[in-house]
Structure formats: C-alpha cells, structure tokens
Amino acid sequence: MASSIRVRATSNGDITEVQALIQHPMDTGLVKDPKGELIPAHFIQQLKFECNGKDVFVADWGTAVSKDPYVKFSFKGAKKGDDLKISWTDNKGASDTTTAKIS
Predict the structure, then answer these.
(1) Most exposed: 19, 39, 50, 54, by fewest CB within 10 Å?
(2) Which spans are transmembrane here (predicted)?
(3) The Cα angle at residue 16 between residues 101 and 103, in degrees rounded to 5
(4) Is the CB of residue 49 less than 8 Å from the CB of residue 55?
C-alpha cells in the first residue's frame, strides 16, 4: 500500500521548511451518510515529525481538523541529507509512517 503521507522538506541554511499532505477522511462522527446514519468518527489523534532522533513537531488532533490535512512548519537544527520521519496514529488504531530526505 502506498503511504498516505506526501512530504517535502527543504533546508535553507539553518532553517528547514516542511510541507506535508496527509490523506485521511478525518470524520467527526457528526455527519450523516445518504441513508441518514451517522458516519463513525475516524480522525488522526497524533501526528509526529522527528529529525535526528528528536521530535520537531507533534500535534494532538481531534475532530476539528479537515479531511486530507495540510501541515507547514519550519524548524532549526537539520541539514541537507538528514532524514525526517513522519508518523500518525488515528482513533481506530491505524497508522502510517514515512521518511523523507531533507533537500
């Protein structure tokens, strides 16, 4: 199965800029399907970015995040060629992890 995470990380001197797009339904549990039945809640609970063994971004999410979330942030302390590990876990126990090289 292909990863549900697309990421780009670029280093410019001391600053690394990260952009990530995560494919996930992010269902709130409050929306009804065409038959009028509630679609069960299904959302990412934790999103984590690690570089050189250290967390550089951690988000604890709930139902207020939209479908296929996009995340953009910058951090210091990485260089070109370093690995950036991205992982998420959702409320149903599903998870995904991918690694991107910083360019």
Answers:
(1) 54
(2) none
(3) 35
(4) yes
